[in-house]
Write a structure and sequence with these properties.
heterodimer, A: 752 residues, 7-stranded mixed sheet, 22 strands, 47% helix, globular, B: 216 residues, OB fold (Dihydrolipoamide Acetyltransferase, E2P), 2 domains, 4-stranded antiparallel sheet, 4 helices
Chain lengths: 752, 216
């Protein structure tokens, strides 16, 4: 009986090896197969003792050759390992790593999203003879060993929303969060709360969660992973992957979307994207790698679970130690824990004090701020860098003196004066009559009528007939070169709205690319907005020396990048500058569509972060105008995807400091940026006829099998779903922006 | 009186509909290598978002506009003499012969034979209890309607109002809605035919179902 079971296990191990290595046959696999077949043939003739000896020998051979095969694993083999139904999943971890747990809000398929498991778990630790049970909030994607209803760990927006809710609960209860990332990517539907918008909310909230967050990566598929992985310590299983896009997706883009990518191209993309644990450790996006057994951890590897338990305890201890100053002996012991037998022996209380909680958030920001800094090219000279550093310090001093010190007293004085004036008015109203007159408080009504005649005329006269029609549209500073072409164009709505053809010079000149019949917005160059909305001619551009590079050495990308730079005259897809909008100084970042589709990589992320920091220092509003973005730049791999938490954190710091962060979408904005620093703004507006979403219709069709209606991603649909706050006509953007500057935003805007 | 026989003969004689494709405005015509007898398809996709087969391009003021097939069918008569020429608006370019399907034939017959009573607004519609009981007992074709008869209850936002039938007197031939489901304004609720023609119409529909040959 025992022999049968052991033989079956060996056969299962061989099948697993075959699954992992796919089509590639090698000598080790062939040998294992032959030996197993030989044994099965001979088995009926062998006695019990001989059988046992032979099986033990076979098992030894399996261990030996699995070790050999381990060294032959390619990145794509690792992808197959994490996707294998026998791969450990979150339920196995809950069973084997934690001492006790209660699942919250789900029982198998009965859950708001069965792919997301949330559980309250405990870890027992010794303190002398006493056992202390420490609570943690465990959450993560569950692949469920191939259970259909788990959707492969692809989380729907409401699943991420549920996870976020329980992260907040953990914060209230002051217990650490352990998140386990087992996702190929988020489920791309726009239904409320929306895939992108919910991930951005998760990132925004996690950036400020005041409890230790530890994340463990097994399958880290882009945005879906980021939704729960913004952590103080990021651990990764040695056979896992963490990537901006699946190798198949990257290959489809490389090979042209229409063609199905070849297995060779997929293998090549998996290597180029540098998705393995070792790569990510080297790039600095994870803190530690947890070694798995050869060919990946499976539910029967109990030693691995013990090791995982030690690692998560150690990671949580380290985070607490870094902010809550343990005793000197315990601190030293924790730091030497790598060599120690079991971190359980040293007790560390995981609930943090008030000071430590604030420090924790600061540390988290610093950690992410330091990531991928070298992944872009900084063309500034040493002198320029020193000057820039000094300038920043001076501005910080100036800002503190002017806004924190002087303004505070000025504000106090103004409040006093205001109160005194209000008192006097109350006195007049209360006493009235002769005493009021005696005190010199004349009739307010009369005084209000004493408006200067010119001002009255300006306010009451609606038109200026003697100057002809008041047509502001004629006064565009920048006119699109498309208006020089003598041709007509047809509005795409002409079938439904009966729009007449429009003459190009009219449409792209005077009409600013807006159909005069139905209001459809034809796309315009980013320069149109720079000069007509953001007054770029008088603006001060900064950080233009920061340029996109090829941090992963992605094959063939240098050439494409050079081509984009040559064609657009830009160093990256982001332009940052300081400008005046109707007299209000504002920091603006623009994502430019013609430069590699407006994709965001390390340079763009760094530029936006620096722009937000500048706006914070100078107490100005911060506007991010997305002329178009196709998502995170896949050729930069995790250097790109890490911009999602990085920039969101910087933006959150700016908003918390009391600024106004306003996002304006145009043309097409999709994927990572929308799912992070764009989607997290409380004030998101869209230019009419723009498209906003997580994944395009083609990707939705491929991943979910559902056809989406033609106008699924349109700004009006996004408005109906509550993703954006308004839709603006292109010709009114400047006016609307000025109105927004006057009415929205926090306390720190200097002009208030 | 509906002459069903004549109508069927007419349909059998020409079991298709001819759609004339005309220029929406002036411009230079460029046929895209289409030949008489070519099969073309109409708009497709769940929301008819994919346009039909490209028939020709019409260029005016350097604005090339595609003219696509609006129905599935066969190209009949292309005016190839217009190729590369400037044409006026409303000029016929070609004809598409669209062969009628069973549903379309039945639809045509019923359109002529029935009086459709439409929903005045988006709401849930119910029959009044007496009519409902009659339908349940003897089927929908057992109910006789006349002008002013209180037939429906319109239920919307917890507000229930009666709705009376207006139109010619006759029997209900078909009910086009499910009780309790939302019906959009303008959608047909019931189809009514004169009592004498009820069996005739049924007979014709059955014959079409059994005998009509679909050519596409």
């Amino acid at each position: 009986m025992d022999i049968d079971k052991r033989t079956q296990e060996l056969a299962a191990r061989l099948t697993y090896i075959r699954d992992i290595f796919g089509q590639r046959e090698n000598s080790s696999m062939a040998m294992l197969r032959t030996r197993l077949e030989e044994f099965l043939e001979k088995a009926p003739q062998l006695g019990m003792r001989e059988l046992s000896r032979q099986v033990a020998k076979l098992e030894e051979l399996f261990v030996l050759l699995e070790g050999k095969l381990e060294s032959e694993l390619t990145p794509m083999d690792r992808v197959r390992i994490v996707r294998h139904p026998q791969r450990i999943c979150l339920k196995d971890i809950l069973e084997n790593v934690y001492d006790n747990y209660t699942e919250i809000g789900g029982q198998d398929e009965w859950s708001i999203d069965p792919g997301m498991i949330i559980a309250r778990a405990t870890i027992a630790r010794r303190m002398g003879k006493k056992t202390v049970h420490q609570s943690v909030m465990v959450l993560g994607q569950e692949k469920g060993h191939g259970q259909e209803f788990r959707n492969g760990g692809s989380i729907k927006p409401w699943g991420n929303a549920n996870a976020l809710y329980y992260m907040r609960v953990a914060e209230i209860e002051n217990i650490p969060i352990h998140s386990y990332v087992f996702t190929p990517g988020a489920f791309p539907v726009e239904d409320y709360p929306g895939a992108a918008q919910q991930i951005s909310k998760n990132l925004y909230v996690m950036a400020g969660l005041k409890v230790p967050i530890i994340s463990v990566f097994s399958e880290g598929g882009s945005g879906g992973a980021e939704a729960i992985a913004l952590a103080d310590k990021r651990l990764m299983l040695s056979h896992g992957y963490y990537s901006v896009i699946s190798p198949e997706g990257a290959a489809a883009i490389e090979g042209g979307l229409k063609d199905k990518a070849t297995p060779e191209l997929i293998e090549a993309c998996a290597s180029r994207l540098r998705i393995t644990a070792a790569d990510n450790l080297e790039l600095g996006f994870i803190d530690r790698v947890i070694q798995e057994p050869p060919l990946g951890a499976r539910p029967e590897h109990y030693d691995f679970f013990r090791q995982l338990r030690r690692e998560v305890i150690r990671a949580t201890d380290e985070v607490v130690d870094s902010v809550d100053g343990l005793g000197p002996l315990r601190g030293m012991a924790i730091r030497r824990q790598a060599k120690a037998a079991d971190p359980q022996d040293i007790f560390v209380r995981w609930s943090l004090g008030t000071g430590a909680r604030t420090k924790l958030v600061d540390r988290r920001f610093e950690k992410f701020r330091a990531m991928s800094r070298t992944a872009c090219r900084d063309n500034r000279s040493l002198g320029a860098r020193i000057y820039s550093g000094l300038e920043g310090m001076l501005w910080a001093a100036h800002s503190t003196l002017r806004h924190d010190f002087l303004t505070r007293y000025k504000r106090h004085l103004l409040h006093l004066l205001e109160a005194a004036e209000a008192e006097l008015r109350a006195l007049r109203q209360g006493v009235g009559g002769p005493l009021g007159k005696f005190l010199g408080l004349g009739d307010g009504q009369q005084r209000r009528l004493e408006v200067a005649p010119e001002a009255l005329e300006r306010l009451t006269l609606l038109s200026c007939p003697e100057e002809g029609a008041c047509r502001l549209e004629d006064t565009w500073v920048y006119v699109s070169p498309k208006s020089r072409e003598d041709r007509t164009l047809t509005c795409p709505n002409s079938h439904t709205h009966g729009c007449l053809d429009l003459w190009g010079p009219d449409l792209f000149g005077e009409f600013a690319g807006v159909c005069s019949h139905c209001g459809h917005h034809f796309s315009m160059e980013f320069q149109w907005y720079l000069y007509n909305v953001f007054n770029f001619a008088q603006a001060y551009e900064f950080n233009s020396e920061l340029e996109s590079s090829n941090p992963l050495g992605y094959e063939g990308f240098d050439l494409k990048l050079e081509q984009a730079k040559r064609q657009t005259g830009l160093g990256s897809s982001c332009i940052t500058f300081e400008t005046h909008i109707e007299g209000v100084t504002t920091v603006v970042a623009v994502l430019v569509s013609p430069f590699r589709g407006g994709t965001v990589g390390a340079a763009e992320g760094e530029k936006i972060i620096r722009a937000a920091e500048r706006a914070m220092l100078k107490r100005t509003p911060f506007i991010l105008y997305s002329h178009g973005t196709a998502g995170i730049r896949i050729q930069e791999g995790t250097c790109g995807v890490i911009q999602m938490p990085r920039v969101t954190m910087a933006v959150r710091r700016y908003i918390e400091a009391g600024g106004l962060y306003l996002v304006l979408y145009d043309t097409n904005s999709f994927a990572g940026p929308v799912a992070s620093f764009l989607g997290c703004s409380a004030y998101q507006f869209a230019v009419r006829s723009s498209n906003i979403g997580f994944a395009g219709p083609g990707v939705i069709r491929e991943t979910t099998g559902v056809e989406v209606p033609p106008k699924y991603h349109r700004a009006f649909s996004a408005l109906s779903r509550g993703h954006i706050q308004g839709i603006w006509d292109r010709r009114d953007i400047k006016k609307n922006l000025h109105q927004a500057l006057l009415t929205m935003g926090g306390k720190n805007l200097y002009y208030r | 009186m509906l002459n069903v026989k004549e109508m069927l003969e007419e349909l059998n004689a020409s079991p298709y509909e001819e759609i004339e494709i005309k220029t929406p405005h002036t411009g230079v015509i460029d046929f895209v290598g289409l030949n008489p007898g070519d099969r073309v398809s109409g708009p497709s996709g769940k929301w008819l978002e994919r346009p039909g087969t490209l028939l020709a391009n019409l260029t005016r003021e350097k604005n090339k506009k595609p003219i696509c097939a609006t129905q599935k069918g066969q190209v009949m008569d292309i005016r190839s003499e217009l190729e590369g020429k400037f044409v006026e608006a409303g000029e016929r370019l070609l004809t598409i012969r669209h062969f009628l399907s069973k549903e379309e034939v039945i639809g045509r017959i019923l359109k002529k034979a029935l009086h459709l009573f439409h929903a005045p607004e988006r709401a849930k519609y119910y029959f009044v209890p007496e009519i409902d009981a009659k339908i349940k007992a003897g089927g929908e074709q057992s109910v006789k309607v006349r002008e002013g008869l209180d037939m429906f209850i319109v239920s919307r936002m917890k507000r229930e109002t009666p709705l009376s039938y207006s139109g010619p007197e006759g029997m209900i031939y078909a009910v086009y809605f499910q009780q309790g489901d939302n019906v959009d304004g303008g959608q047909p609720l019931i189809g009514v035919c004169p009592e004498s023609q009820l069996s005739l119409i049924q007979d014709v529909v059955n014959r079409v179902q059994g005998e009509w040959e679909e050519r596409d």
